[in-house]
TrEMBL record:
It comes from Brevibacillus fluminis. This is Uncharacterized protein.
Amino acid sequence: MLSANDKAKLRQSLQAEESKIVTIVLSDEDQVAGEIEHAGINGITLTDGRRYNYADIREINGFD
């Protein structure tokens, strides 16, 4: 699960002019990639509608 510090870093990077394309490693070792539409307090929603709770995420772009 991502720490509060990792979540803050993720939100900061989303507010920058950087790409919102991410690679997500889930707790079951599956990997997904996509563009982030919204990063809320409970999880991440990608532009294609997929949603992942932080509790189910092991790593995002190397943040663990």
